Structure formats: structure tokens, C-alpha cells
């Protein structure tokens, strides 16, 4: 049997039932490392999406009224199931994205952490009493779930992006209609299957796949959906914000970044190199917190480039599921084309190609979207790599003279998600961290996607935070109750 014939078929998940789409049609899901069909996902029409919304709306009052401890128990059960099924989950992620199995396993573990964290935070949704201005009055606040939520997620972390949205939503007492990325629906379908096993009641979590704009229109124009939580590109985020404005739906947006990575001359250069190699090439550079502009102080530029080149030459590129691979493929042809366009543009405009810079077409790579890990130096501000998120395995190095100059350059873009810098000067670490206009700043640190961290950006990188102490805030409405006695 061919791969296409054995590919798993993912129906819609509506009101606790795996449901054939009204269209009767499915689209193919491709493994970007091999070009093979690894799944088929349903194409929902408007009526299917509306049924999912109806289910989420009908069951919402019951789910919201459950004791938080009971919702937490269900999420903890789901956490257990994630751990018990981690090999299979990681395999699905690796097949749909091509990413190294080890990184897919890390993603599964991260999901388990988020499930537990949100389950527990759900039990700590406190209100306040407020001293009133007059003696015969009492004021208190309570926090209540916002209602049914539309969650729209990307392909780069097909499990953890889903969990980072549904875990806080469910813990807070919201219900969800999930629309995962079309490139990775099998990972999302596995979440729904495990949620069923964990005892998440019918209708509390629903999943629809198909045409994104069409599904988005139905979700955003239905009054029963009270919130949209989205991770993805800035243009789609802006579109959803406009659509949400019509009914003043609550929104959380985790959009694109253009992260600066700054290395001062007083830094521990070995640690900086280890940090940049890890965070730049993780997930083949396809993360929104991936450094896109590496600023190295002039005096250490040559040493930095020589050491970095050595590391990058040691990275092994291949099909992630085969193991022993550091860097997988780009997600699709468009992703690969963008990377090669960025590199060509930089070279034409005078950049130096230090290492890499080519599509890989050898025996192990010919059927996938592989690109060699690349370092470019002598980057100028008029190059595409300086102005757009490359979203690929390309490290672009710029130089600077002074602290103020590099702060200004780092802040000169419209987005502000993650920023990193390396220094051993204590005063500088405080000055620079306070001056950078970013939602998250790593000082001698590159691990920002952890459950304790309030993850999110400023400026056009979005609004709202996932994880950390306020993880449920975006799924709760504050209500004031005033009593005259
Ligand atoms: P990327 O470039 O990383 O694929 P996108 O913003 O295009 O980022 O995709 C992120 C998510 O947004 C995916 O689930 C995708 O299907 C969805 N999406 C894309 N366009 C729309 C749209 N017009 N309305 C609603 N969702 C959309």
C-alpha cells in the first residue's frame, strides 16, 4: 500500500463526536522531510463550523459552573495521558513538521508542564474586596470565564501552541473551538483524542479544519464566540483584530518577532556562541522568538564569527524522525523559497556568505525542503534579512560600536517579542534590559519558552500573555459586585 493509502484520516471533532465533513472532502498533509502524504484532514464548510460553535455555546454554562478543582483534575488526567503517549505524540509532530524527534519530545514535555500549571492556576482565580468610599456599601470583584473561545494555531509547534491555548481556556471554565494549522492537523487531532480519554465533556473542546479564511469568517462573525486567541503571522493577526472589533470580542495575539541578539565585547563569548547556536537553529529557525538580527560589537566580530562558523559546520541536517539530526527541513516550498530569496538578496547587496547558503539536494535531502545552516556577515539595513522575519536557518550578523547605537537599532522595528543580549557588566545588563522595547528579554539566557514565563510581545508582536503567573487572565472577565447594606 502506498503512503497515501495508509495516511490517517482526521475528521472534524464536534460535540464529542468524530464527524464526517458536510463536503465529504479531505486535504492532504505532507511530511516536509520526504514529500510523503502522512495524513488527510477534513474540509469543513460553514455549517460544520456553526455546529462546533453551537456545541461550545451549549455546554459552556455547565463547564463554567464546575468547581475549578474538578476542571483541574481533568486537565491533570490529560497531562498524564500526554506523558504516557509521548513517543507517539512526538512521532506525529516529527512526521508533520520534519523536526528532530528529540525536539518533538521536548515539545510533548512542555505541553505536560503547561497542562499542570494551568490546571493548578485554575484553582487560584481569586477575587478581591475593595474598601468602599461610603460606610453603607461593600465592594467585591469576582473573575468569570469569558465564554466560548476560538483558538487559531500555527504549525511550528503543532502540539504546544494548541495546549498553550486550550489549557488556560479549559482551566478558566471556557469552552473552545480549535482551528489548527492546515499543515499539522494530525497533532491537533491527537490532542482531541486524548482530551476525550481524559474525560473532557462533549462540546467543551471542538476542532475544525479546512479553508482558514472561511473558517475564520464564521468564527469571528458569530456572537457566541466571545474571545479569539491566535498565534501566527502579523498580517493574519491584524485581519483577525479587525474582524473581532465588530463584536468587540476579547483578543490575545501572539504575532511575529524580529528578535535582536546582542553580544557586547565584555560577554562570555563561548556562552554567547552556545546560546545563539541553540536558539537560532532550533526548529530550523522557524520560531517567533528566533534571533533574526545578531548584533556583535566590532572589537569581537572576527573571533565571534570564527567560533560560530565552527559550531554551525557541525550541525547535521536531515529527516527529524530518523534521529541523530540537529536541523530538519523548512515546513514547505514557500518557506524554503523565502529563505533562499533572503540569502540571495543579502549576497547581491554585499553580504559575506560565511557558511551554508544553499538548498540541499543530495540523496538524503532531495525530497524535502532542506536548506543548509547559514551564516551571513556584513549585513546592511537595506537587506531583506534586516527588515523581515526570515523564519529559517539563516544567522545574519550586523556590527555596532556603542551601547546606545545597538539599543536604537534593536528598537527600530515595529515588532517587539523577544530580545537577547550577552554581557558580564551588571550595570549594563540593567540599563539595556530596561531600554529594549520587547515583551521578553534574555540576559545571558536564551530559554524563554518555559511555563513559568509570561510569554508574549509588545508593539505589533501582539497582546496578552501565555504561561506565567497571569496565564488565565486573558480568559477571564473581571466583575464588580457592589452592595448597599
Ligand atoms: P504562518 O505564516 O506561520 O503559516 P499564518 O498566520 O498564515 O502563519 O497561520 C497561522 C494560523 O492562522 C493557521 O492556523 C492558519 O490556517 C490561520 N489563518 C491563516 N489565514 C487566516 C484567516 N484569514 N483567518 C483565520 N485564520 C487564518
Automatic annotation (TrEMBL):
Residues 18-480 form the Aldehyde dehydrogenase domain. It comes from the Bacteria. The keyword Oxidoreductase applies. Pfam families: Aldedh. Keywords: Oxidoreductase. Belongs to the aldehyde dehydrogenase family. This is Aldehyde dehydrogenase. It comes from Paenibacillus eucommiae.
Amino acid at each position: 500500500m502506498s503512503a497515501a493509502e495508509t495516511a490517517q484520516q482526521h475528521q472534524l471533532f464536534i460535540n464529542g463526536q468524530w464527524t464526517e465533513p458536510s463536503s465529504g472532502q479531505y486535504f492532504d498533509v505532507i511530511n516536509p522531510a520526504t514529500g510523503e502524504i502522512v495524513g488527510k484532514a477534513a474540509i469543513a464548510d460553514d455549517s460544520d463550523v456553526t455546529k462546533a460553535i453551537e456545541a461550545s455555546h451549549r455546554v459552556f454554562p455547565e463547564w463554567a459552573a464546575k468547581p475549578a478543582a474538578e476542571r483541574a483534575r481533568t486537565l491533570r488526567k490529560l497531562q498524564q495521558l500526554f506523558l504516557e503517549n509521548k513517543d507517539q505524540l512526538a512521532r506525529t509532530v516529527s512526521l508533520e513538521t520534519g523536526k528532530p524527534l528529540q525536539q518533538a519530545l521536548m515539545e510533548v514535555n512542555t505541553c505536560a508542564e503547561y497542562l499542570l500549571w494551568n490546571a493548578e492556576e485554575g484553582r487560584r482565580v481569586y477575587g478581591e474586596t475593595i474598601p468602599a468610599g461610603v460606610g453603607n456599601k461593600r465592594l467585591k470583584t469576582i473573575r468569570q470565564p469569558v465564554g466560548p473561545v476560538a483558538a487559531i494555531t500555527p504549525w511550528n509547534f503543532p502540539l504546544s501552541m494548541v495546549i498553550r491555548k486550550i489549557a488556560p481556556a479549559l482551566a478558566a471554565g471556557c469552552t473552545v473551538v480549535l482551528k489548527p494549522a492546515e499543515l499539522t492537523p494530525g497533532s491537533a487531532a491527537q490532542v482531541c483524542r486524548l482530551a476525550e480519554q481524559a474525560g473532557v465533556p462533549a462540546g467543551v473542546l471542538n476542532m475544525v479544519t479546512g479553508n482558514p479564511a472561511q473558517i475564520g469568517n464564521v468564527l469571528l462573525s458569530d456572537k457566541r464566540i466571545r474571545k479569539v486567541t491566535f498565534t501566527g503571522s502579523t498580517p493574519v493577526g491584524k485581519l483577525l483584530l479587525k474582524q473581532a472589533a465588530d463584536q468587540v470580542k476579547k483578543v490575545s495575539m501572539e504575532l511575529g518577532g524580529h528578535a535582536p541578539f546582542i553580544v557586547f565585547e565584555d560577554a562570555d563569548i563561548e556562552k554567547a556562541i552556545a546560546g545563539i547556536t541553540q536558539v537560532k537553529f532550533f526548529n530550523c529557525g522557524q520560531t517567533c522568538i528566533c534571533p533574526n538580527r545578531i548584533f556583535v560589537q566590532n572589537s569581537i566580530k572576527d573571533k565571534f564569527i570564527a567560533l560560530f562558523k565552527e559550531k554551525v559546520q557541525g550541525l547535521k541536517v536531515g529527516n527529524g524522525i530518523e534521529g541523530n539530526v540537529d536541523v530538519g527541513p523548512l515546513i514547505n516550498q514557500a518557506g524554503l523559497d523565502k529563505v533562499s530569496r533572503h540569502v540571495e538578496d543579502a549576497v547581491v547587496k554585499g553580504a559575506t556568505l560565511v557558511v551554508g547558503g544553499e538548498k540541499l539536494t543530495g540523496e538524503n535531502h532531495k525530497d524535502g525542503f532542506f536548506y543548509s545552516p547559514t551564516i551571513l556577515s556584513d549585513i546592511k539595513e537595506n537587506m531583506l534579512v534586516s527588515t523581515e522575519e526570515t523564519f529559517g536557518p539563516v544567522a545574519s550578523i550586523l556590527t555596532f560600536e556603542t551601547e546606545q547605537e545597538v539599543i536604537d537599532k534593536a528598537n527600530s522595528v515595529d515588532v517587539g517579542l523577544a530580545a537577547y543580549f550577552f554581557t558580564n557588566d551588571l550595570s549594563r545588563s540593567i540599563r539595556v534590559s530596561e531600554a529594549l522595547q520587547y515583551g521578553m528579554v534574555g540576559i545571558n539566557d536564551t530559554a524563554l519558552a518555559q511555563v513559568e514565563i509570561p510569554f508574549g510581545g509588545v508593539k505589533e508582536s501582539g497582546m496578552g500573555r501565555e504561561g506565567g503567573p497571569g496565564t488565565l487572565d486573558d480568559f477571564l472577565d473581571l466583575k464588580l459586585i457592589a452592595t448597599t447594606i
